[in-house]
Amino acid sequence: QVQVVESGGGLVQPGGSLRLSCVASGFSFSSYPMRWYRQAPGKERELVARITGPGGITNYAESVKGRFTISRDNAKNTVYLQMNMVKPEDTAVYYCYALVMQREYWGQGTQVTVSS
């Protein structure tokens, strides 16, 4: 049974940092790319960052490039999203995503609120 479970959200001040984690289970984690999405109130869900399986090649949305870093620890079946220099517009529910055997799997989401 495939599962992805996020954690690490919370309230952070503008300019601060936060690290999100996503623990995956039920599939050969190291072989699959992973993604982070976010959805702000009243907006569509958007892709934030993705990382390939082998090789760990990364891609980012323009809005977070240079501030966010996606990484993975295959020994722990975990993908991370390090968020630095956060802005109020980063406020959203952040979701972990995996596409395994042509099926989509989403976590329950973790709320990130950037506010002073």
Gyration radius, to the nearest Å?
13 Å
Helix content: under 10%
Q: Which spans of ≥5 residues are poorly predicted at pLDDT below 50? A: none
Category from helices, strands and their pairing: mainly beta
Shape: globular
For the termini, the CA-CA separation is 40 Å
Number of extended strands: 11
Order of helices and strands: EEEEEEEEEEE
Q: Please state roughly what percent of the residues sit in beta strands, choosing from under 5%, 5-15%, 15-25%, 25-35%, 35-45% or over 45%.
A: over 45%
Report the sheet with the most strands, covering strand number, pairing sense and barrel closure.
Answer: 7 strands, mixed
Figure out the total of helices.
0
| Average pLDDT reading | 97
Fold and architecture overview:
The strands form two sheets. Strands 2, 4, 5, 6, 9, 10 and 11 form a seven-stranded mixed β-sheet that branches. This protein has a four-stranded antiparallel β-sheet with strand order 1-3-8-7, with no helix packed on it. Helices cover 0% and strands 53% of the residues. It contains no helices and eleven strands. It has strands spanning 3-7, 10-12, 18-25, 34-39, 46-51, 58-60, 68-73, 78-83, 92-100, 103-106, 110-114. Strand 4 (34-39) and strand 5 (46-51) form a beta hairpin. The chain is globular. With 116 residues, the chain is mainly beta.
Short summary of the structure?
This protein has 116 residues and is an all-beta fold.
Offer a few descriptive terms.
116 residues; mainly beta; 11 strands
SSE inventory with pairings:
Layout: E1 3-7, E2 10-12, E3 18-25, E4 34-39, E5 46-51, E6 58-60, E7 68-73, E8 78-83, E9 92-100, E10 103-106, E11 110-114
Parallel strand pairs: 2-11
Antiparallel strand pairs: 1-3, 3-8, 4-5, 4-9, 5-6, 7-8, 9-10, 9-11
